Amino acid sequence: MSAHSHIFDLSQATMLPPLAEGEQDAAALDLQARWSALHLAADAVAQQAQLGCERPVEAIASLPERACAAGGERLAAIEQGIGDLGAVMQTGLAALVGAADEGHEITAAALTLWREFYAARGAIVELLPPESGPA
Description:
Elements: H1 21-48, H2 58-61, H3 63-70, H4 72-101, H5 107-125
């Protein structure tokens, strides 16, 4: 089979129409819910790692709203990052629960998972420019 070339450049194409205002609100709520769920999972991991629960700074807490406002490729990358991190946390938590149920010490494993969460979350937050303060 040979590859066919074509003259179409779809690199700047928008494949879906823009979201209507109500759909944008729903998308923002979904992103906020997934971001909050990640942090609830991280709190559970932190507890197993014998760490205190963290109080996220504004740049972390406001990420879903800022991502939706940014839109486009940044929003898509953040949504992908949140989905990927969610999969890691789900798998990691399942492994921690399974190990704990078998009577294994899980503190070190939980600390490792929390550090992975922390690093991945930092990478997601860095996908948006820093917030500018009042002028």
